[in-house]
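user: can you give me the structure for this one chain? tokens are fine.
assistant: on it. calling the predictor now.
[tool input]
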Amino acid sequence: MLDFSITILGNGSAVPTAWQNPSAQMLHYNQHRFLIDCGEGTQMQMIKYQVSYRNLSHIFISHLHGDHYFGLIGLISTLHLFGREKPLHVYGPQPLEQILLMQLKASDTRLKFPLLFHPMPASGIIYEDGDLEVTCFPLNHRIPTWGFLFREKPKERNLRKDFVAKYHPGVAQMHQIKQGADFVLPDGTALPNRDITKTPPKPRCYAFCSDTAYDEKLIPYLRGVDLLYHEATFDDAMADKAAEKYHSTARQAAQLAARAKVDKLLLGHFSARFSTPDHLLKEAREVFPHTFLSVQGDTYAL
């Protein structure tokens, strides 16, 4: 099974503290590296936690509040200084392209690699390869903001070794069987596909939601995901403040996870008000027991 994991580089909110950095995480899939958000200090977190960006090819920026992208130009500059030559794809709100171009122009920086910008559509697939597709969807925040869904594509069925050894199907036949076809013997007898193949592993799926108010319109996008990262900026006592700021409480994140029937919930985007988010975990687990606190530097495998 291909590697599919997420390393948390930053899980704080707008104001950085001595114990947490602004939003950023690195998603590993096979040999690919996908950076989700790039708050201030992200490249320092990569160094601290020994997270390589050698195969980093795509960066996804959820919105244009500074705690989600102020580290981007620094990372781009470092890649330039290291002599990167292969293209870097950046996905984000349309104004981000002009922000990056202005910063590069002001510093008279002519990148040694192609920087390819992709403006975010309202929703839909924004990246795909043979194994993975990435979908964006709108969140409910003060400015245009997107969540991201990283979904593994279904794998072909696997042929049983005893069937191959006994009947020696041809290459074309094996391909058809992997796609779901039965195998027909010379006498016309059909061997059902379910008897000659093995069911492949269930496709895995990771969802990223930060920042957003509680919004049940997100449920169709999140339904059944293996791991949901969701902001938990506030606690129960600050529910009114959460609504005012278009953020969520830990309990609201748990309510959304429960209604979307996700497998596990990972909380993040913690307010600087809290020296420890342990009480947020308690509030969330009262609603959704399979809740965990994100920890900077930790890697979560799907």
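assistant: here you go. The CA atoms of residues 151 and 162 lie 32 Å apart. The chain has two domains: 4-155+201-301, 158-198.
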